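anyone seen this seq b4? input:
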Amino acid sequence: MHNREQLRAEYQTRINRVIDHIGAHLEGPLRLEELARVACFSPFHFHRMFAALAGETVGDHIRRRRLEAAAILLRDRPDLPVTEIALRCGFGSSAAFARAFRERFGTSASGWRAGGHRKGGNTQRKAGQARRKAGKDNPTRISYTPASNVQPSTQRRRKTVKVEIKQLPGYHVAYMRHIGPYGPAVSAHWKKLNTWAGARDLSGPGSVKLGISHDDPSITTPDKCRYDACVRVPDGFREQPGVNVADIPGGKYAVLRFRGTDREIGGAWTAIYRDWLPASGYQCDDRPCFERYGDEHQCLPGGRWECDICVPVKSL
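predicted toks r here
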């Protein structure tokens, strides 16, 4: 039984490798033969294997990822023309993009950009266009109200926190991927990663762990959302069944030290995108956002914990 589980994990590792490759090459052609080579599967069987393990065909997956990437750019990059976004996301023509976008989101690209995205759910990562460029490299304080799942009679106080611009190193990581709704399942997923890392002496003093939410639940359906629990590993570390390896690029990040509970962290993320970013003189770039955990980020009394929320930025 143990061997069968390892073999299944090896298959999933190969499919994860393909999903990552697709995300990094959305703007160009993604041919079946190329993706089969990435997975080290026969092209004849690859399409069926991908559909069985990913829950959708290769073509449907690529189309969905391209449309979701376009939706995020339309919302967060008002400076980019719609045609440029369509080309960046792998669509051959504006007409093809317009048809596909309306079919997927029920509105035009311009309607989505003008506020149509708010109709589909709560949007947490809305950058908007900066109105001023002040204090670009100085710590900036913002405040947020923790999430409302406390007793109705409780008076919630806004927390004041500091966002700093930092130059972060790149991280070579091993990750386990969770696909499904964010929430309690992610906590269980971290326990699995921590057990695996501890057995290989990857935890402890000097360790760094990253949590990467690849998808926005206001755009991607919950059952397709991807979350990677990552731990820094030495160069040369090889993939294992169920565990992939990736490089998270370094560079300039907006960093907020969060201290609180899992009920409160959503408010901190929202405050960065809603309150800090539009007035910062920065915009997000294409590197992934992550939560960074390390040895110094200990569990705190009362079920509280701390981490660094890291948002990749570049000048507006």
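The chain has two domains: 2-120, 163-315. The radius of gyration is 20 Å. kinda curious what u guys think
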